[in-house]
Structure formats: structure tokens, C-alpha cells
């Protein structure tokens, strides 16, 4: 499948994970830039997907893309949203609403990603549908949550949150879970429980 043929060699690019997170790594990048770099990776990867005409390669890259997006959202719910809600209290839309809305959008995005993951061969239409939800969420999260936080969190705290975000990698699922709670109080533990159950199944 080919959406655009403008970058014929792009499909040779290796899938990479910017500021690769792991339970053992120490982040030298603050949480805002870390999250932004992961957002950029999701957008870049979508652009690359449009250039791939080999069905098998596209399928594999899309599945890695889904896993990356799912894991990113779960890490935010476990280790980012709960930690920053109080710093957003002065925002016009209200801190709780902002976080609740972010989680609601994660679930909507996960619904589309799950449909995509369940296709035996990933389809162009569903990739675009998922990307539309993704881009919408990234934009809102960046303007309503990340930008206001940049001036409110000092460097030391941003580094500490980045470390916790990286550590949440081992608690997070690679799979979209649209059925998880939309409530900010319940979502972190729901995330941990579902990933734990998955990991036990894989043992
Ligand atoms: Fe995000
Ligand atoms: Fe998010």
C-alpha cells in the first residue's frame, strides 16, 4: 500500500524511540521535552507510514506505531497526569477537566487503534482514522497541558517527573485498552492492573 510516493527510500529508515525510555535509564531531559519528543516521533512515524508500499513492512511498522502510542498514553496516566493536575488549577478549563478530557481522548484514540490492531492486514482508512484522533489529542495536550506547565515546573521537578515517566515503562501496556476507566482517580491503577495481567499471561 502506498499513500504518497514522495519519499521512496524512507521505508528503509529504522524504527527508533527518541529519548528511549527504560526502567533503568536516567533522564537528562525534563518531562515536557520528553513527552514532546515522543509526540514528534508518533507524528514522524505516521508520515513515514504513508511512504511504505510493502504490505508486510507496513503491517509491522503500524503495529509498532500502535504499541508506542498505547504505551505513551498509559505512561501519562500512570506517572504524569496524576502528578501535574494540581499545577493546572489556574487554567481556564480547570485542572480536573483538563486531565479528565485527556484521558477521555486516550480512550477514543485507543478505540480506533484497537480496531486497527485487530485487522488481519492493516487498512489505509483505519490508519488515517487513528492518526486523525492522535493528531487532535497531541495538539490539545500540547496547548492545554504541556505549554502551561512549562513555566510552572522547575527544572529539578521536570527531571524527576521524566524519570518517573521512564520508570512507568515497565508498568505500562503496549496494547490499546479503550475499556479502561475515564476517571482520573481510577485510570492509573486500572492501567497498572491490566498491564500486570498481560505480563503474567506472557510469562
Ligand atoms: Fe502525550
Ligand atoms: Fe496524552
TrEMBL record:
Residues 31-146 form the Hemerythrin-like domain. InterPro entries: Hemerythrin-like. Residues 168-188 have a biased composition (Basic and acidic residues). Keywords: Coiled coil, Signal. It comes from the Eukaryota. Residues 168-193 are annotated as: Disordered. It holds the Pfam family Hemerythrin. Residues 1-22 form the signal peptide. Residues 99-126 form a coiled coil. This is Hemerythrin-like domain-containing protein. It comes from Adineta ricciae (Rotifer).
